[in-house]
Each structure stands twice: as C-alpha cells, then as structure tokens.
TrEMBL record:
Species assigned in the record: Actinomadura viridis
Organism lineage string: Bacteria, Bacillati, Actinomycetota, Actinomycetes, Streptosporangiales
Protein name per its UniProtKB record: tRNA adenosine deaminase-associated protein
C-alpha cells in the first residue's frame, strides 16, 4: 500500500510543508505528536496533515494551538494507516466518510465542499483542491512531485 502524507503549518511568512513519515505511527497519539513537532519547529498555527492512500481515501487532520487533532476522512478504513484516522473520527461503518466536516472551514473549504470532494474526486485531486483553497497549493505540488 502506498501513501502520501504531508504536514503544513501556517507561519507569519506563509505556509511551510514537509513530508510526513507515518509508517512508524502506531496510534493517534503518534500522529498528534508528529503534528505538534511541526508546529513547534515552524512556529505554525494551524498545522494540517493531509494524507491519501492508494487513490482509495484521503484524510485532513488539523491541530490548533493547545488543542487536540480533529480530522475528516473520506472513507474510513480499519486497517493500517486508515486505522489511525479511524481512531480520530470515531466509530463508523468502514467505507463511510466521517469526522469534522468543518475542520477546514476558516481556510476556504466548507463542510459541504469537503464532503463533496470525497464523493467526486480522486484523493490526490481532493488534497490539491484543499491545498489551493487554503493557500499552499504550490507547496503541496512541490512535495507531491
């Protein structure tokens, strides 16, 4: 299974992104720690983690200063990397979308649009649309290539 994951932090100078290595993450706390590290290293707030796996599903997780991560997942998966995000969004039937549809609302992606991306777009295209709306499309493209 292949995946792409990147963390983006908004700084006073703009958005900064870096690839995220989630292979060793064992639980949702590991994901939150990875996001907190990015926030500390970049002095960024908010911090977003965008993930897609095998053109099957995508996830957008957000960490605000002092908060706990919130996430939206286009299709919940219980195994592997998908299981980490299933922990963040709670129990729902496998394959269903779940989580906080308003997680990116202040960044230009309202809940209806976010839910629609999971229905009509490939995961990579959905993440690019999110990145462009939030203002870090070029940074996303740089990491994706």
């Amino acid at each position: 299974m292949s995946y792409f994951a990147a963390v983006f932090a908004r700084t006073p100078q703009g958005w900064v992104g870096t690839e995220a290595m989630l292979a060793e993450a064992e639980n949702v706390d590991d994901v939150a720690d990875l996001m907190r590290e990015a926030a500390v290293e970049s002095y960024g707030d908010p911090v977003l983690l965008l993930v897609e796996q095998d053109d099957d599903w995508f996830a957008a997780a957000r960490l605000d200063a002092g908060g706990e991560p919130r996430a939206y997942v286009s299709a919940v998966r219980e195994e592997g990397l998908g299981g980490l995000f299933a922990e963040l969004v709670g129990e729902v039937p496998e394959g269903d979308p779940a989580g906080d549809t308003e997680v990116l609302e202040d960044l230009g992606v309202d809940g209806k649009r976010l839910a629609g991306l999971g229905e009509r777009s490939l995961p990579g295209d959905a993440l690019l649309e999110i990145a462009e709306a939030a203002g870090f499309g070029e940074e996303f493209d740089r990491l994706r290539d």
